[in-house]
């Protein structure tokens, strides 16, 4: 009994923090009613209609908990970057700020699985995707990846993010390369994959429907298999090729980056957040039982 109680008490600060973050997001952009929110925390989305009519009433109690201004750690001096990363940070400035907020220094470890890391992942995809519009490349070389990840970290930290983000979210430089996927350029990708089908399926996703219908996810899976196995027909079943599953997984990243280059940055960010919420609910991503109850909450985001 005591154990249960203390477990519950331990969760309370985390819950409050999440509510603060949710409120920050909502107060910036979205129409979801604050009042409904606070009483429906444990209900699933189908209980609370997703498309609630605009209601700008602030939450009755959250503003009292939320410090104002909300990001006291913001550091206005620009961080020193390597100058060796060719990614276009200015194209995704807003999304980097959002990531820094979602991965706020002290809270990041607690909110990692549901808030911080999905946003960090979405940001990385969007950043590489947006930069592909100029470079034509959907992946970084190993050297570039090292410089870029370090620069990204510096920018985020200068805006208040946790300094240990790469570890918290298990992001390594290799995650910015093409990995085992045989395709890394926009032109090659478009010559193999059915890009209009992908765009149609993923241009805008409704996070609630997408988790059930998986229209965009299926289109991504299909395209990932196609580009992953594209040159395999020439290999006479050479079994020393990388395992199919691993190739397909890495090709999915390439596809997400390509999509990110076709969408505007904020749409791209919310599409990927929506997709990762689906995965969270299926328990596929960064499983963490303690955070399970927050997964339900996070469905209201994105
Ligand atoms: C702001 O960022 C710069 C460079 O990253 C750092 O040297 C400085 O100590 C930071 N200031 C504060 C108050 O965190
Ligand atoms: C970076 O992105 C911005 C905004 O999308 C764009 O105006 C600029 O030309 C890009 N810079 C480079 C070097 O690609
Ligand atoms: C990064 O790559 C490693 C393996 O190289 C993998 O274990 C990890 O899950 C990847 N991280 C992300 C965020 O995809
Ligand atoms: C299989 O692939 C490896 C590396 O790609 C190559 O060295 C080897 O000669 C190939 N074997 C056959 C039988 O094609
Ligand atoms: C989250 O929602 C699911 C589905 O409604 C439910 O089974 C689960 O118990 C909820 N988790 C928590 C901790 O509320």
Automatic annotation (TrEMBL):
Cellular component per GO, a single term: plasma membrane
Q: Can you say what this protein is called?
A: SPARK domain-containing protein
All copies of domain SPARK, residue ranges:
82-239
Starting at the broadest rank, the lineage of the source organism is: Eukaryota, Viridiplantae, Streptophyta, Embryophyta, Tracheophyta
The question of whether rRNA-binding is a record keyword is answered with: no
- Secretion signal span: 1-29
**Keyword annotations:** Signal
Tell me which InterPro entries the record gives. Answer: At1g61900-like, SPARK
Q: What Pfam families does its record include?
A: SPARK
Q: What domain of life does the UniProt record list for this protein's source?
A: Eukaryota
